[in-house]
Amino acid sequence: MVLTVIGYILVTIGVLFLFLGALGIFRMPDVFTRMQAGTKATTLGALGTIIGVGFLQPEWIWKTLIIAVFIAISNPISSHALARGSHKIGIKPYLKEGGVDTYAEVDEGVKEA
Amino acid sequence: MSRFTFTFLIYILIWTAFTSSFDPQELVTGAVLSFIVATFSYKSFTSEGLSYLHPRKLFYIVKYLIVFFIALVKANFDVAWRVINPKLPINPGIVTYKTNLKSDTAKMFLANSITLTPGTLTVDVIDDKLYIHWIDVKSTDPETIYKEIGAAFEEILKEIFQ
Question: Across the beta sheet with B93-98, what order do the strands follow?
Fold first, then answer.
């Protein structure tokens, strides 16, 4: 009974953050800020829903924990790869007045194969 | 040998978690499979081996997980607040962060932690410099950047990986 309640609370929190992540992708001005919303909100969203399901079905809890660990490791790596790739093909980050982009100095772009 | 044992232990732990049973048949199958896979992969799986199981390191690993989880929750509320706020309070930019960590594994963990903490996303790692996209640039002074972004993680990671 208690496990069911915890499970539903976790799933609700997860779904809420997934929705906020989607809203962030919609509202942010450029690819990098969108990625910020897309990485962070979806990580907690996915962890919340998956572990919540683990609480609802206690025999699945260990499997869901393993999945959660893999998501926590792989999510930042994929967003890093996307951000690096976007910068290398020449997408400039959205900057306000006085904004800095120190990576532009060392970014050599894509080398022709 | 120590590296092989460590790899084998991690694999059998994952196997047991996936099957969720202590039935002898399952355990034997898991042990055999883990042994075969570990034989081929232990060299690329870990470079330190069993030394991670030293009590001091275990303590810092637990501490790291707690700090990391708190930062993750904080990051989510931070992003949620920015998204909901009608003014969209962002001042993005890419700054350079200089790390003192030496080992590649430690740098990888630092980069991943930075990505999942409030308002920062690692774009690239070149030698000891991390290029970080910061959604709300507060300062371009290296000292402030170090303190604001990664000092808490770096202290703990230094203990685990050195």
Answer: B93-98, B129-134, B120-126
